[in-house]
Design brief:
The chain has helices spanning 41-47, 51-69, 118-133, 136-152; strands at residues 2-10, 13-21, 27-32, 36-37, 81-84, 101-104, 110-112. Strands 1, 2, 3, 4, 5, 6 and 7 form a seven-stranded mixed sheet that branches. The protein is globular. It is built from four helices and seven strands. It has one domain: Nucleotidyltransferase, domain 5 (2-Layer Sandwich), CATH 3.30.420.
Length: 154
């Protein structure tokens, strides 16, 4: 299974979404966070350089990951890799044990969390499989549309 995470900024807050797929990129599980307020000026001051790790890595990606791990129908050990849409979400890697977490830039460069550069090598064959079926952009767009459908449709 593959995990994909992204977030949207809407109405002064952030909402993260997670799509767990099988190897054919069909959905297995979908989840999203509640709206998380953007950091206040005081929070920005107090967190300093750790702000992005806290907001995007812990509050968004960490919350999503913990939620998926707690679903009985999903064995987190069967997740082969987690692909995040934004580099600031890479801080999630501190929680995932042996599951690689990577961010792929628009130019195709693989970014990893510090001291986990080997994750890039581990996901290379998986990324090739994904690109034969679709693209990361298409999968992330599914998540964004899923968030919008769940949160903003009435």
């Amino acid at each position: 299974m593959f995990g994909f995470m992204t977030y949207i900024e809407k109405d002064g807050g952030l909402i993260g979404g997670y799509l767990l797929t099988n190897r054919e990129l069909s959905p297995v599980q979908f989840g999203h966070t509640s709206k998380i307020s953007l950091p206040s000026k005081l929070e920005k001051i107090l967190h300093g350089v750790q702000l992005e790790a806290k907001w995007y890595g812990d509050l968004i990606a960490g919350t999503l990951y913990d939620g998926i791990r707690n679903i009985e129908a999903v064995d987190s050990k069967s997740i082969e890799a987690i692909f995040v849409s934004h580099g600031e979400m890479l801080h999630l890697r501190k929680r995932t044990g042996d599951i690689p977490v990577v961010c792929i830039s628009q130019t195709g460069e693989v970014a990893t969390y510090k001291n986990h550069q080997y994750d890039a090598e581990r996901v290379a064959p998986l990324l090739a499989d994904i690109n034969q079926l679709s693209s990361l952009d298409e999968v992330f767009l599914r998540i964004i549309d899923g968030i919008s459908e769940c949160i903003y449709s009435t």
